[in-house]
Amino acid sequence: MNIQTAIDSDKAKAVGPLPAGHPPVRQGRIGVLLSNLGTPDGTDYWSLWRYLREFLSDPRIIELNKAIWYPILYGAVLTTRPQKAGANYAKIWNREKDESPLRTITRSQTERLAAAFADDDRVVVEWGMRYGNPSIEGAVERLTAQGCDRIVFFPLYPQYSATTTATANDQLYRGLMKMRRMPTVRSVPPYYDEPAYIEALARSIETHLTKLDFEPEVILASYHGIPKSYFEKGDPYHCHCLKTTRLLRERLGMDEKRLMTTFQSLFGKAEWIKPYTDKTVERLASEGVKSIAIVNPGFSADCIETLEEIDGEVREVFMRAGGEKFAHIPCLNDSEDGMAMLEQLVRRELAGWL
Ligand SMILES: C=CC1=C(C)c2cc3[nH]c(cc4nc(cc5[nH]c(cc1n2)c(C)c5CCC(=O)O)C(CCC(=O)O)=C4C)c(C)c3C=C
Ligand SMILES: [Fe+2]
Ligand SMILES: [Fe+2]
Fold it and tell me: For residue 203, is pLDDT > 90?
């Protein structure tokens, strides 16, 4: 006789053995699914081609009509950018693990969050990327196989944008569409003004500033940009970024001249939200500012945009324009304060489920 026992952590006895022929029952646990943007599998041309194709085919990222965009994507973009981007990824690649820093850090955040819930076997923590590997769909499969019928989905973007938060949620539901027994889902809201987030950022800035051998005249809070037209159509991202910086200023006792907001990582020829980070550091240097620090509050993990673009390209722009001292303040990553903040937000979202 084929008797199967349900995986039902705290209700296992109530469910009991299943009758012959009954399909397996897996329920009663809760998954926490961390999600970030995603990253290529390698630095070679085809790894970058696959990653960029998936990323830049997302209509939340590029809103152009496909008939116009695809010839540009498959023509100009995918013939040149994989090589250039691959060379940039190679500069920051984690050679020990043979993966990008974004992947290493997101995995570590997952492991550390899992450790925080280690004493509660109802909670399972997983991670999945919007583009590339490991996928969100695969993460959901692993969670449901372990008996999760509820999922707290956590897009790791403090500031909401349709280009990040929304498309991560789209991808989650795209996977759920294929499931007969779909788990119940809660999605963690953007946390750009959460006191725990502001406090973690402020303490990280303070700690890193005390380690420097200089006091930066200006600190830039540099966020990833979005096209200006997305902002004009109602994406609240710009407002979320400005509020994060304002709260940081209030907490750190800095004025608008000492802590400024800028936007980086432009893509394409259209206008993006301003002021641009590279143009700002160039201007500051030309005005006689000799020392700056840059922090990236919009990135929950260091990645190509913070390590290569800010600590590499933007540092060089500043130095070439006459700057003398430059510091990059790391993202919260898997730091104590950063993890305590993520855990606090997850525990809040678990209310009523645990
Ligand atoms: C139109 C293009 C893009 C928009 C809009 C965009 C928004 C956006 N992106 C992030 C966070 C990250 N972006 C990263 C890399 C990256 N971004 C784009 C383009 C757009 N991003 C590209 C083409 C790339 C790949 C690298 C390159 O070729 O330059 C990353 C890092 C990934 C990594 O592997 O390290 C992050 C993180 C946010 C927060 C955002 C809008 C708010
Ligand atoms: Fe990006
Ligand atoms: Fe970039």
Answer: yes
Residue range 316-351, pLDDT digits in tens: 999 999 999 999 999 999 999 999 999 999 999 999
For 337, the token pair is 């304060």
Cα distance between residue 24 and residue 261, in whole Å: 53
C-alpha span between 218 and 281 (Å, rounded): 10
**Contact criterion met (CB below 8 Å) for 37 and 19:** no
Q: Is 208 annotated as a binding residue?
A: no
**Atom 39 of ligand 1, residue of closest alpha carbon:** 224
Assigned token pair, 316:
């060089």
* Residue 128: its H or E element: strand 123-132
Q: What is the pLDDT of residue 8?
A: 53
The length of the chain, given as a count of residues: 354
Q: Are strands 325-329 and 291-295 parallel, antiparallel or unpaired?
A: parallel
Residue 335 CA to residue 333 CA, distance in Å, equals 6
The pLDDT value recorded for residue 24 is: 87
ipTM over 0.85: yes
Angstrom CA distances, 14 to 19, 162, 209, 226, 247, stand at 14, 43, 56, 52, 49
**Structural domains for the chain:** 43-92 (no CATH), 195-329 (3.40.50.1400)
Looking at residue 95, the DSSP 8-state letter turns out to be T
Given a cut of 80, whether residue 69 has pLDDT beyond it is: yes
Q: Which of 34, 35, 36, 37 to mutate to test the pocket of ligand 1 (most atoms within 8 A of CB)?
A: 37
Q: Which atom of ligand 1 is least distant from the CA of 298? A: 39
**Looking at the predicted structure, is the pLDDT value of residue 61 above 50?**
yes
- The radius of gyration computed from the CA coordinates of the chain, to the nearest angstrom, equals 22
Report how far residue 245's alpha carbon sits from residue 256's, in angstroms, rounded to the nearest whole number: 9
Residue 50 is classified by DSSP as H
